[in-house]
Amino acid sequence: MREQTPIVLASQSASRKAMLEAAGIAFTTSPANVDERALEQQLGAAEPAAVALALAEAKAVDVSRETPGALVLGSDSLVVCEGVRFDKPGTRDDAARHLRFFSGKVMELHSAGALVRDGVTLWSQGAVAHLHVAVLSDAYIETYLDVEWPAVAGCVGVFRIEGRGVQLFERIDGDYFTILGMPLLLVQAALRRLGVLTA
Known about the structure:
The chain is of the alpha/beta class. It has a single domain (7-193), classed as Maf protein. The protein is built from seven helices and seven strands, in the order E-H-E-H-H-E-E-H-E-E-H-E-H-H. It has helices at residues 14-23, 36-43, 48-64, 92-102, 138-148, 176-180, 184-193; strands at residues 7-9, 27-29, 71-81, 84-86, 106-117, 120-133, 169-173. Strands 1, 2, 3, 4, 5, 6 and 7 form a seven-stranded mixed β-sheet that branches. Helix 4 (92-102) crosses helix 5 (138-148). The longest helix has 17 residues, at 48-64. The mean pLDDT is 94.
């Protein structure tokens, strides 16, 4: 069995690193330096799926400039609810406001991945999950944040599905890995096609 050449993950996301580690995919990390908000502004009224793809690709391209010859994986995820796009909460008050907005609604979570070598995109694809949020009382939101804040400060959607965040939902339609922040099954398929993984 030949040794796998590590890919470069253009992120320091703990959940994305954990996914790759658990899947046995060799990787190193090099966080991207991309102004995500500026890129989102440039994209204007683009569909959420297109925004997630653009951000994933931009991160991979940025890191590929510093890692010649390496295969770089960029990933991004964003949440949309009733046409409103949400970023990570900046403060606990922001987190509470987001959760009050999500209460009783369906949250769309878009995750995308891109594989880039030497500035050239070899693959990019996204996936979406629909998360049906329970009706959340103000008292529940505060109790939830007492436990989960500030751990969820870096989580778009203000939840960790692998932890207490699962309590927020009545039903989930979509892939578990997509919800964690990267469409891992799609990434694996692409790595197989590129000869990085062998079946």
